[in-house]
Amino acid sequence: MSCIFCKIINGGIPSHKIYEDEDTIAFLDAYPAGAGHTLILPKAHYADVMNTPDAIFNKTMSTAKKLAPVITKAMDADGFNLFLNNGRAAGQVVDHVHLHILPRNTQDNLKIGLPQKPYGQGEAEKIKQSIINCLRENHLDREKIKEQIKQNAPQGKISCAKAFELAQLYGISHARMGESLNQLKIKIVKCQLGCF
Ligand code: AMP
Ligand code: ZN
Description:
The chain is an alpha+beta fold and 196 residues long. The chain folds into two domains: 4-104, 2-Layer Sandwich (HIT family, subunit A); 138-192, no CATH class. Helix content is 40%, strand content 13%. The protein contains six helices and five strands, in the order αβββαββαααα. The chain has helices at residues 4-9, 54-74, 123-137, 139-152, 160-169, 181-192; strands spanning 17-20, 24-28, 38-42, 79-83, 99-104. The protein has a five-stranded antiparallel beta sheet with strand order 1-2-3-5-4, covered by helices on one side. β1 (17-20) and β2 (24-28) form a beta hairpin. The longest helix has 21 residues, at 54-74. Bound molecules: adenosine monophosphate and zinc ion (ZN). Zinc ion is lined by residues 3, 5-6, 45, 96.
């Protein structure tokens, strides 16, 4: 295995390890953007987010959440950035999925902000729609949601709260908060019947 992080995990390359449990490990970044810059990763090799099983990704995130306030306190910092680079275009250099924790101070003058600007007229609506369309077209998502609906609405019986939650999840009633819960329920049941 040529992966540098796997070599660190196996002890083949030295690191400044600060934490490890059964599934995850954390060590200091060798080229820190600030004191205490830490990498958190699964011990098993997964190249990126999409290749990482949910359970493992959740454990890694949970380790990061546990460590972040501790590292922040130890560094006498005021806050932290928690981030992940996925794919070359996003700056991923090491192909073993990992989270970064970077302690921050109010006065540290680090510039990691992105050049953000507002959407143009109507642009956000179009973008929102193309993402929702992709979600709908994504067979796997559709199957997953159908499964959830089946579990939550046997024989089409579903609580108002659950109907609303599922509808939002699938963008069925996007932003139409005025829509009656009954209408939502009908749509959910249609989903259940495969009519969407
Ligand atoms: P990324 O750009 O998200 O893939 O980040 C990879 C990170 O790994 C960078 O911040 C590097 O500084 C760090 N890094 C590379 N080699 C090592 C190493 N041997 N030990 C610790 N951190 C490393
Ligand atoms: Zn690896």
